[in-house]
Amino acid sequence: MRDTLLSLSGPQIMLWGCIFFATLYLATGAINLGIVRVLMPLWGKGSPLDPRPLGPGQTARELRQSALAILLFGVGSVVPWGFLQLGWARLATDASGWQIALEIGVLVVWNEVHFYTNHWLLHRPWLRQFHLVHHRSVVVTPWSSYCFHPVEAMMLGNVILLPMLVHDFNVWSLLSVPVFSIVFNNIGHSNYDFLPDADRDRWWLNGARRHHLHHACYQGNFGFMFPFMDRLCGTALPPDAANTHIDRHMARHQAKPHAAPPA
Length: 263
Known about the structure:
- By secondary structure, the chain is mainly α.
- It has one domain (2-251).
- Helix content is 62%, strand content 2%.
- It has a two-stranded antiparallel sheet.
- α2 (10-43) runs antiparallel to α3 (58-76).
């Protein structure tokens, strides 16, 4: 794999990068929908988190914006490839299975720190305008996962660059990052409570609830899949933080005017 990557040209890397990210996005999104709309209800497990309807044209907008993000991610694949070509980074060729597993664990933690930092910055006034593209999806779907403004896509998409400069990772460790990232992203945007018991909020699958709360409340819960950064930085939201917003919306839209009495 290492020799194959290094033998490709820049345009080939960009083309295969686009195919890779598009496949990840479409496949995980379809699997997500199958799980939350078919399997989980069939098993009688969990429930939807936000009962409100999607915004007008939301799915089409998410797919269009995600296509642009996929293009940027794919074209951006030339940057880590360029690091290797220039000798700024190298790939480990003789890593054991245990070393690869350890590298993936380190990258999972780094991904959480990197995402939290950039996500927090995207909520600051000077960057907020770019993040609002993603927050137009108040009720999230799997297709929200890559629905980014180009600036946000570039900020979040550079996650492996710094690690590559400080350590020689195995190629499979690096390729795992977009894989576990889109899986975590789909869980976070599934709008499904896999573990309804609030006392189990520390469980990683409850990243769906935590990220639903972020979209419903806008501020707080800036972490990706795990809660440790929000707890460390004091930005964690309580499990019922969105109830007021949802109840107000449902009451407003379910209220019907009384029919006029007959003359």
